[in-house]
Q: What sequence folds into this?
């Protein structure tokens, strides 16, 4: 396959995440009804960890349905920095990790992508040593990794942190990790994934208790099993891995992105538009679908992998508490908050997963929302209208929330700092334009005036 090789120095391969992303803005003329069908891309949070998992295999790995995202491009650069050969051809990514030249990921790449820390488990399992810079915090929280480190130590690794880098190595003649029983103080997605990957090549059996149950954990387990790993219980709170000496080549397709799907369901609800989307795995969206039904929308499964949203005539208030899966996903909190700003009544949103994931509140309030924050709780008092305004995106899901609010607002909303959006949504504006949304990506400073936009008659307000 004539793919495009990815090199460490190369800029992101995702066109909509060009280095200029932070000098571009999205201009959105709101209150346009949407219509039609949207294709959901492969899951970012599965693709990133599965790419790291490919380090476990000394043969060819072919990944399909890989989304074209800045984060995926960055993960490709990190893998190539340790000697992995990658070729990307549209959504197909060929990875060969047969000759790893180093076990150290460069700080300048790791600091831009937290998920790059996932490579520590596979490197340790494959080579018996790894040097990975601490990913550091980000906009939504401190993002510590002590659960990863403690788990690797339980598997027999010597781990110390020096000058911001985690140094891990396995003692003993064969430098092989040893299976162990690990209890996670918190069902961390990343720690579960790191330890599951490390355990696939360890000697003996590993049990991870209080494991994360997210669909992306199951996808990673299925990918590893397709390479010959022996993993049971992924998707439950107890995962059992029996180590094997070696894994083999695989051709694997990534699951659809449940968070992108949830974001588009909300795009339908907030613009009072009927939309359908596929592919989607409805079971991955149970909590989000339940909440949309609570506020009055109808969600119809047109086929096993097609969902349709039919917005009800009501936007009732509801309360949300983010929790580990299968609870309401923290990655949908900002988007749902945007929807609830137009609800009738007071909604209470409690963010329990990350300590600083309410930064979109200030920007939504600039658009006329009425939200008060106390600690990790936001009280959203529904208003009848939002008004377009210039706003700044603070993180990935906050960006999506501002796009959704802009789609519903009177007038034009200008969103800057698009580099956040491009990390996790594949050509979001193109997909929305195809649904009839009136938005464009332009250079910062482009005048949004004198663009004729037919105004939607607007939604009648209804009883809840
Ligand atoms: C994954 O992050 C996702 N990222 C996040 O998606 C998602 O929000 C999160 O899981 C929760 O579902 C990827 O998969 C690349 P965690 P991760 O470890 O693994 C604390 C998005 O928008 N914690 O489950 O980093 C941590 O600080 C992103 O797509 C420790 O205290 O999440 C957080 O408060 C954002 N010590 C909580 O656990 C540790 O050692 C959940 O973190 C590890 C985590």
A:
């Amino acid at each position: 396959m004539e793919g495009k090789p990815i090199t460490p120095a190369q800029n992101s391969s995702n066109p909509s995440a060009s280095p200029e992303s932070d000098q571009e803005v999205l201009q959105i003329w709101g209150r346009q009804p949407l219509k039609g069908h949207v294709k959901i891309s492969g899951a970012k949070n599965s693709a990133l960890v599965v790419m790291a998992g490919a380090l476990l295999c000394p043969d060819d790995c072919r990944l399909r349905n890989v989304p074209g995202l800045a984060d995926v491009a960055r993960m490709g650069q990190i893998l190539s920095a340790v000697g992995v050969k990658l070729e990307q051809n549209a959504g197909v990514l060929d990875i060969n990790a047969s000759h790893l030249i180093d076990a150290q990921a460069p700080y300048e790449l790791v600091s831009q992508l937290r998920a790059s820390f996932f490579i520590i488990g596979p490197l340790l399992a494959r080579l018996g040593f790894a040097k990975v810079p601490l990913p550091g915090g980000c906009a939504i929280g401190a993002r510590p990794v002590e659960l990863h480190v403690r788990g690797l130590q339980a598997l027999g690794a010597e781990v110390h942190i020096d000058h911001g880098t985690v140094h891990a190595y396995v003692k003993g003649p064969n430098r092989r990790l040893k299976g162990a029983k690990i209890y996670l103080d918190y069902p961390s997605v990343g720690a579960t994934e790191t330890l599951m990957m490390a355990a696939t090549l360890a000697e003996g059996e590993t049990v991870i208790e209080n494991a994360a149950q997210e669909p992306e954990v199951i996808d990673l387990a299925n990918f590893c099993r397709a390479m010959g790993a022996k993993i049971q219980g992924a998707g439950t709170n107890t995962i059992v891995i029996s180590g094997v000496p070696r894994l083999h080549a695989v051709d694997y397709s990534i699951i659809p992105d449940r968070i992108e799907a949830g974001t588009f369901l909300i795009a339908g609800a907030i613009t009072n538009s009927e939309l359908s989307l596929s592919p989607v795995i409805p079971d991955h969206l149970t909590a989000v679908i339940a909440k949309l039904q609570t506020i009055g929308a109808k969600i119809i499964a047109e086929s096993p992998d097609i969902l349709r949203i039919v917005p009800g005539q009501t936007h009732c208030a509801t309360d949300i508490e983010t929790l580990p899966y299968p609870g309401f996903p923290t990655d949908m909190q900002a988007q749902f908050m945007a929807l609830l700003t137009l609800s009738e009544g007071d909604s209470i949103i409690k963010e329990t997963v990350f300590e600083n994931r309410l930064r979109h509140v200030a920007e939504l309030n600039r658009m006329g929302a009425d939200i008060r924050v106390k600690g990790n709780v936001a009280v959203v008092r529904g208003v009848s209208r939002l008004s377009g305004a210039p706003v700044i995106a603070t993180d990935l899901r906050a960006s999506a929330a501002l796009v959704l609010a802009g789609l519903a607002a009177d007038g034009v909303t200008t969103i800057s700092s698009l580099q956040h959006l491009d990390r996790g949504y594949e050509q979001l504006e193109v997909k929305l334009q195809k649904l009839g949304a009136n938005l464009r990506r332009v250079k910062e400073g482009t005048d949004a005036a004198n663009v004729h936009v037919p105004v939607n008659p607007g939604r009648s307000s209804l009883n809840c």
In short: Residues 44-253 form a domain with the UDP-n-acetylglucosamine1-carboxyvinyl-transferase; Chain fold (CATH 3.65.10.10).
